[in-house]
Design goal:
Jelly Rolls; single chain; mainly beta; about 290 residues; eight-stranded antiparallel sheet; eight-stranded mixed sheet
Length: about 290
């Protein structure tokens, strides 16, 4: 995220009446066991299986073996395994996994994450991307394009990620949407860095503990600014943003999820930074925290 990125501090005032909070479909599946059988679930991974990443995920970024399946710290009811990403400045920028999927008008992504007690700032995090197709080269149309305003028929993206406010927030920062779409605002330097959506007041993200994160994206009607996005932390709705014009084509869908910790030397001084992920679910309905 560049220093010139435009910040949109927009939060709908009536969202507590419009969107669910607390328990969701996961409440019927303690520990997320068999949650993939729910008809609204598109994809789920609890990182328990010892299979290669490629068996469940479509693209793997594992520069120098930065991805590992380990036992989750401090939260045994999440199961015996989680995804751990270790980024080492000077050696790599971390890594992650990408899954393409059949989308829906409204998509929910829920995951658990844990930042190590000494984790510094993270450059980019969990990103939902729209690609022109699930086939061939068009499945990559939603990737890349940093600093460029997207073609509304080819791509848009939004990422739920920690925002450090150029080192002003306690690492890793506060929660923030970092979004690219064809009607996004120009940045002060003449580029189109991702527009930021976040509540005006937030507590810093707590390190050393598991956090349940969920984001929602509602596709707009092409030609109409009726798209939305929202996020929840531990079942509490933190932000709901409306009036977004994500796309111009009815065939462009948010259909790829990248689960990653991408770390660079932007503000970051800690050489080794560890982030863990667990119990990822993609669904057409609100998921909510899993029950212990």
């Amino acid at each position: 995220m560049k220093a010139s990125a435009l910040v949109l501090l927009l939060c709908a005032t009536a969202w507590t009446q419009e969107l669910p909070v607390g328990s969701g479909l996961a409440a019927s599946y303690p520990h997320d066991r068999e949650i993939s059988e729910h008809p609204a679930v598109i994809f789920a991974d609890d990182f328990e299986a010892s299979d290669p990443w490629e068996k469940r995920w479509d693209s793997v970024r594992d520069d120098g073996g930065v991805l590992a399946r380990v036992a989750p710290e401090d939260h045994p009811w999440l199961g015996a395994g989680c995804l751990q990403v270790t980024a080492t400045l000077g050696d790599n920028t971390g890594g992650g996994l990408t899954k393409w999927f059949e989308s829906a008008p409204r998509v929910f992504i829920r995951f658990y994450t844990r930042f190590a007690e000494d984790c510094d700032y993270v450059h980019h995090f969990v990103t939902l991307r729209a690609n022109a197709s699930l086939q061939g080269s068009e499945r990559w149309s939603g990737f890349g394009g940093a600093g460029q305003r997207p073609d509304g028929a080819l791509r848009f993206s939004t990422a739920l990620e920690p925002w450090g406010d150029w080192g002003r927030e306690t690492p890793p920062g506060v929660w923030n949407f970092y979004s690219y779409f064809h009607t996004m605002k120009e940045s002060g330097d003449g580029n189109f860095w991702g527009n930021s959506f976040r509540p005006p007041e937030q507590a810093a993200i707590v390190r050393g503990t598991w956090i349940c994160c969920e984001l929602m994206l509602v596709h707009n009607t092409p030609g109409v600014s009726d798209g939305e996005q929202a996020f929840w932390i531990d079942g509490e709705l933190r932000g709901h943003f409306t009036g977004i014009n994500w796309r111009t084509s009815p065939t462009l869908w948010a259909n790829a999820l990248t689960l990653e910790a991408y770390v660079t030397d932007r503000w970051t001084e800690q050489r080794v930074n560890v982030v863990a992920f667990d119990n990822l679910v993609i669904a057409r309905e609100y998921i909510g925290p899993t029950e212990p």
